[in-house]
Amino acid sequence: MDFESRRLHLLISVVAIVALSFTAEKCRELVGEEGSSQSGKFTILNCFDMGSGTVACAVKEGVKLYFYNIRSSHAERARSQAIESALVDAVAQGMSPTDSAKHAQKEGKKAAKLASRQAKRIIGPIISSGWDFFEAIYYGGTVTEGFLRGTGTLFGTYAGGFLGEQRLGRIGYLVGSHLGSWVGGRIGLMVYDVVNGVHLLLQFVQTAETEVREKSERSESSFFGETPVYDGSEGSSVYESPLDEESYAYKSTERQSYETYEDSEL
C-alpha cells in the first residue's frame, strides 16, 4: 500500500511538472524574448560546449558539491565523536561489548541526525539558492526572476537531499541535492514565466475593457448632445410663402394702375 501511494505521488508530481513546463513555454511565447526569463536560456546542454559554458558549470557545481560535502562531513564527524563517547561511557558502566556497540551505534546515529539537521539548514541549500539568485541577475533577469529561481533552488535542494539521504545515505544526499537544486531552480523559472504570462493577459483584458467603456461613453455623449436639424427648404416654404403672395399682389395692383393711367392720357 505504501509503495502504491509513493508511485501515485511520483506520477502526480511528474504530470504537474510537465503541465507547468508546457504552460511556461506558451507564456514565454506570449510575452516574447525580452519579457521571459533570461537565466533559463543557459541550459544543461551549455555545460558540454567545451568552452565558457563548461567552465561556468564546473565552477558552479564544484562550489555546491564542496558545501554539500562540508555538511555531510560535519554529520560524520559528529557521529564518530558520539560513538567514541558512548563506548567510553559503556565501558565505564561495565556493559558487555555487544551492548556497548549497540549503544554506541544508537548514540552515533542520533548525533549524526542532529548535526545533519543543523547543517543542512545553513550551508548547502542557502549557498546554492544565493548562487542561482545572483546568476539570474547576472544574465539580465529581474529581481523577481532571481527570487523565484533562488526559492525553487532552496526547496529543491532540501527535498532532493532529504529523499536521497533516506535512500542511499551520504551519496544519496549529494546526488539528491544536486538534482533537487537543478529541478527546483527550473520550476522557479517556470513559475516566473507563468506569472508574466498571466500578468500580460490581465493587462490585455483590462485594456480591452477600458477601450469598450470609452467607446460607450463617447457614443452616449454624442447621442445626448445632438440638436434637431430642420430642412431649410421646408422652412423657407412655410415662412416665405406668405411674403411671396403679398409681393405678387402688390406688383399686379401696381401694373393695373399704370395701365389705367396710360389709357386716360390717350
Dominant shape: elongated
Give the mean pLDDT. 73
Cα-atom radius of gyration: 44 Å
N-to-C SSE string, H for helix and E for strand: HHHHHH
Oligomeric composition of the shown chains = single chain
Described by strand count, sense and barrel closure, the largest sheet is: none
User: Helical region count?
Assistant: 6
Spans of at least 5 consecutive residues whose pLDDT stays below 50 are: 229-241
Number of strands: 0
Distance between the termini: 143 Å
Helix content: over 70%
What structural class do helix, strand and pairing data support? mainly alpha
What fraction of residues sit in β-strands?
under 5%
Keywords: Signal
Region (Disordered): 216-244
Signal peptide: 1-23
Question: What report would you give on this structure?
Answer:
This protein is mainly alpha-helical and 266 residues long. The protein has helices at residues 2-35, 52-92, 97-120, 124-138, 143-224, 232-265. The protein is elongated. Helix content is 86%, strand content 0%. 26% of the residues are buried. It has 6 helices and no strands. The chain has a domain at 42-192.
